[in-house]
Amino acid sequence: MQGNGTMETGYQDTISGLLRKRGEFLASMT
Asked: How far apart are CA 11 and CA 6, in angstroms?
């Protein structure tokens, strides 16, 4: 396993992925 770098990027990928899905969801409702 690697150090903080991998965990931080994975965390950021999850956050951006959730934000993207949420944006698409809100856009589809409009």
From this structure: 8
